[in-house]
């Protein structure tokens, strides 16, 4: 599912920086805290500033601009004719932008994650600072009253948009130190939202969530067609963070799975607690459709561990996370030695939360599995890595700088195929993946220099990053069916995406008005 740690957020971090000379500073994951885990900022700062040139980006081919991708600039409400990979059987609108929707006004407003609702709608979560006109059936939303004389500064929201960007339904909840990080929808169209807070989240109607502590805590909320159904919280002696959620359809309603990280002792339901091994540990927990805790488990050692994304494959739960501990034990199935700055682990858990298998992505630099998604009985995964790595029995993977990785492994953790994209600027990293009805993989990524997506050359504008969207055949192959880009300068969040039956809906915040949320509809 989404989250996105490179989500990731999301729950993915906000990037604020200048592309001239690299990223200079990073805003927090949310509004009040930085979070313990790896972010796109960490990856960018670790990328080699003078990476080797990407093969195929020099010589007459580059000079002629052969098969160069045209930018969407500016991207506002612009129709384009899209691209077809030569010889590919692809819709002519593949990757072409069909619409844009901005969520924001004069304050700091954000789109944190997007998830499929049904054939022609998506659900979006984020926050607003002050009044924002969402349009459609939603109208103007603003923070509520904190006291008789004082308003909240921020409100969070969960909203349904059509796949043409028109708001259909919205619910707002207040909290100046609270923000949503992840959202997921089950088969019955119930909506689950997870996020963080440090004092209170005011949902209203008796559903308020409050903690007496000053650490970051986690809130959960479930919406049905009748409105808000229940809320839950995870509190403790130190910080707890939520990064991604997924649902398990078990025939008796859908269970909610949350992944994140925690320090100290985390209290989950008044009777169940977990204690971290050293620094932060990975957190994996499951609740029933009625809000009862099914299980909670931790993976950790002496350093910092962070579970950033989750997908459900059958009844198994597949979690991707990062670690910087020298050695990371994973139940009784594996023990990993850290090979670089930080490594990633892909772990398959059974329905009861017991690890069944684990794989390590580890080179001599930053290695990050940013997102995972179920594809048939397999797992699609994306992220980035550096150096040379061996992963899941695949042939050795090599990187120029920090390179983007798209891969597929079996439900038992065995590698099926992998594809690598390097950037001439030193950084290429995929941040989100979703699976279409045909089994093709839809990927969002960022690059800071020219990169070859198969036979297609993608080049950011001078002084800019590019957000790249691409569609890959689910059966493998290093050439995407299509690739398109949006140039950015200044600050932005790592791009996330999900699918309706007609569009790829891409979310990527912009720096207008102090920060706005942006949704884009791209042709499938």
Mean pLDDT: 84
What strand order characterises the main sheet?
10-11-14-15-18-19
Question: How would you characterize the largest beta sheet?
Answer: 6 strands, antiparallel
Count every helix, treating DSSP H or I runs of 4 or more residues as helices.
2
The portion of residues forming beta strands comes to over 45%
* Main CATH class: Mainly Beta
Overall structural class, as computed from helix and strand content, comes to mainly beta
Can you give the helix content as a percent range? under 10%
What does this structure look like?
The protein is an all-beta fold and 524 residues long. It has a single domain (15-523), classed as Methylamine Dehydrogenase, Chain H (7 Propeller), CATH 2.130.10.10. A 6-stranded antiparallel beta sheet has the order 10-11-14-15-18-19, with no helix packed on it. Strands 3-40-39-38 form a 4-stranded antiparallel beta sheet, with no helix packed on it. Strands 4-5-8-9 form a 4-stranded antiparallel beta sheet, with no helix packed on it.
What would you say about this model in short?
With 524 residues, the protein is mainly beta. The chain contains two helices and 40 strands. 57% of the residues are buried.
């Amino acid at each position: 599912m989404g989250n996105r740690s490179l989500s990731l957020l999301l729950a993915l971090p906000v990037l604020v920086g200048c592309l001239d000379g690299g990223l200079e500073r990073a805003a927090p994951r949310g509004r009040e805290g930085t979070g313990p885990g790896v972010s796109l900022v960490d990856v960018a700062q670790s990328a080699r500033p003078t990476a080797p040139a990407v093969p195929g980006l020099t010589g007459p081919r580059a000079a002629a601009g052969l098969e160069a991708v045209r930018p969407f600039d500016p991207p506002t409400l612009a129709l384009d004719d899209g691209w077809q990979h030569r010889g590919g059987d692809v819709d002519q609108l593949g990757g072409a932008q069909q619409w844009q929707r901005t969520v924001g006004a004069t304050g700091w407003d954000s789109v944190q994650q997007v998830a499929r609702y049904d054939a022609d709608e998506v659900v979006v979560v984020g926050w607003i600072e002050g009044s924002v006109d969402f349009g459609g059936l939603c109208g103007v939303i603003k923070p509520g009253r904190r006291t008789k004389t004082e308003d909240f500064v921020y409100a969070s929201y969960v909203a349904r948009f059509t796949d043409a960007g028109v708001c259909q339904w919205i619910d707002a909840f207040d909290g100046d130190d609270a923000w949503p990080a992840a959202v997921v929808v089950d088969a019955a169209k119930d909506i689950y939202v997870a996020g963080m807070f440090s004092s209170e989240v005011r949902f209203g109607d008796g559903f308020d969530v409050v903690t007496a502590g000053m650490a970051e805590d986690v809130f959960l909320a479930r919406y049905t067609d009748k409105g808000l159904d229940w809320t839950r919280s995870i509190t403790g002696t130190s910080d707890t963070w939520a990064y991604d959620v997924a649902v398990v359809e078990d025939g008796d309603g859908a269970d909610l799975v949350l992944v994140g990280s925690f320090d100290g002792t985390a209290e989950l339901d008044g009777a169940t607690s977990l204690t971290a091994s050293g620094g932060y540990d990975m957190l994996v927990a499951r609740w029933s459709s009625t809000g009862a805790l099914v299980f909670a488990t931790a993976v950790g050692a002496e350093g910092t561990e962070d579970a950033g994304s989750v997908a459900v494959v059958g009844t198994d739960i597949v979690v991707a996370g990062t670690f910087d501990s020298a050695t990371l034990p994973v139940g009784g199935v594996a023990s990993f030695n850290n090979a670089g700055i930080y490594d990633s682990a892909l772990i398959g858990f059974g329905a009861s939360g017991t690890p069944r298998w684990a794989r390590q992505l580890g080179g001599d630099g930053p290695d990050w599995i940013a997102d995972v998604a179920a594809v048939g009985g397999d797992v699609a995964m994306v992220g980035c890595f550096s150096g040379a790595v061996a992963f899941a029995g695949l042939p050795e993977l090599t990187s120029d700088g920090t390179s983007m990785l798209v891969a597929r492994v079996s439900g038992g953790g065995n590698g099926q195929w992998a594809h690598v994209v390097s950037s001439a600027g030193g950084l290429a990293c995929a941040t989100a993946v979703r699976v279409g009805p045909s089994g093709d993989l839809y990927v969002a990524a960022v690059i800071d220099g020219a990169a070859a997506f198969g036979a297609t050359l993608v080049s950011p504008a001078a002084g800019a990053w590019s957000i790249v969207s691409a569609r890959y055949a689910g059966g493998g192959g290093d050439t995407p069916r299509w690739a398109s880009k949006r140039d950015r300068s200044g600050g932005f969040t790592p791009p996330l995406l999900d699918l309706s039956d007609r569009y790829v809906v891409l979310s990527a915040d912009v720096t207008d008005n102090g920060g706005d949320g942006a949704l884009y509809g791209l042709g499938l």
